[in-house]
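Tutorial sheet, problem 5. The two components below are modelled jointly, 614 residues in total.
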Amino acid sequence: MDNKKFHAICIEIEKGKWMKVSLFNRKERIYKVEIIVLLKQVPATESFIGIADDGISIKTEDIKWVINPYDEFAVEEALRIKSAHGGTVTIISTGPEKSVETIRTALAMGADKGILIKNPEADKCDGLGTARILAAALKNIKFDLIIAGQRAVDDDNFQVGTALSEFLSIPNISLVEKEEIVDGKIKCYRTVEGGTVVLEAPLPILFTTQKGLNEPRYASLPGIMKAKRKPMDIKSLSDIGIDASEIGEPMVKIVAMKLPAERKGGKIIKGDSAGSIAAELVKVLYEEAKVI
Amino acid sequence: MSNGVIAITEQSEGVLRKVACEALSEGKRIAENMGCSLTAVVLGSGMENVSDEPGKYGADKIIVVDNKALSEYMTDAYTNVIAEIVNKENPSVLILGASSQGKDLSARLSARLNAPLAMDCVAVRIEDGNVIATRPMYGGKILTDVKLQGKPQIVAVRPNAMSIAESSGAGAIEKLDIDAGKTDLIFVEKQLDTGKVELTEADVVVSGGRGMGGADFSVIEELAELMGGAVGASRSAVDEGWRSVSDQVGQTGKVVSPNLYIACGISGAIQHLAGMSTSKVIVAINKDAEAPVFSNADYGIVGDLFEYIPLITEEIKKLKAG
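Model answer (structure tokens):
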């Protein structure tokens, strides 16, 4: 042992970290999990969404851009798995260059590195196109687990994560509210109508998040400072060997957008007493609206 | 270009799910429009009861694959089997319900078949042989028409969005023996409360928000039960721990389209409104006359929900008795 190493170990003992070092050598600690988290930047859910002049896209001015809420659960779960098993958490996103801001937020939460595949035409890309880009980017990266949001709250497609697992030839489990990793296998609690289904699969696998999986942490100030120095790999489509023409024309094209029909606006039921108001409401629901 | 429409059905405890009947009915309308036939696909294990039911909704042919590996929905086994059926039948349109199963299956199938997918559609029309589907985006703040190009065009219909129409179809059963292929997923167990009306499929939803003041939802539970409906909750009620996550209605919860939505003690945050705006009739009950929920409701009562809901429940009981 050279002096440097000896010195480092002495410092660890001094700090009382010896327990931690020895824990690290226990058997279950050997199963490090290399985790990829898919991330998308979306308008904050409190945003009002308006239609742009072209009629097929949204107005982007005045929108606050945030991490897709379901992807936040994915980042948090990845960090928890990392702290239990060891490993690294890599964030990957594809989209316009400004998506880098949300990757930084995930790094500030504690993720280790970020990858952005720039696609200035991302809004024209359909779900399969996005999944193909991510598949190409992950082709030469080793991973045990991919975690994705069940859907992005902008296009509400529920498609990219699951399609990516198909392109990577790995199994997928959607809408996971709880997971346990033991001996290279994962057990997932998937929410379905009226309950939960428990499934098991060998790693690697992709799962998508359901609300209730965890409570995402906030980025701390030291976290934000540290995030500035964490590796961020920004690549173009050609860097990952994709020719824009290879993704091809999208098979799903937006041809029109409209706002949902506005309600005529609350007819407030009035009356002499609570009893007569309740009776009047039931009467209009029965006779006028015909819904009961 | 037309080689027919295939509807993938879904069952729960041996009964066709409501959303499957909706997918079959919409599939029949598409098939009639395109001048082609409707084929229903029924997958499962030991399901004699369901097998011929799709005929009631106009299926000309029913492909049944009865296989132990299909007794529970598993993404890999179901994708393998359906991909084989699609390759054999070469349909123009594949339609299914956008349930938790349907969303997962349609996404995986779209990648396997290199096929366009319109998720969670509320309306479908055919133009020049292509599907144009209307689907909500941004949690329902925008309705988008998407044009699908490719084959098959996959349409996942939102529960409660398509009307159910019975029509006669030959319903000839064709049993196929298809291997589930390579699978990695293992079924461990399930816990289902089958007595509960599923929120996304309910005709009536009664939701409670911060105005409930606590976890006691018994007044709205009683009203929901009386109408055969389901109980929903706003995000704040879920975040308070009063209701489970599966009850949350809104942009980060479930999107519902019942005939009647009753919002009790819910102020009407934009995320919540997005999750229920496609309901046919909306009633709001809130103490605060300025609550935004009123401008998004068809009928409103300004007052205490704990005073009004029991009175409304009594009135409906009278109506049902009379």
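Marking note: The first strand of chain B starts at residue 5 and ends at 8. Full credit if you identified this.
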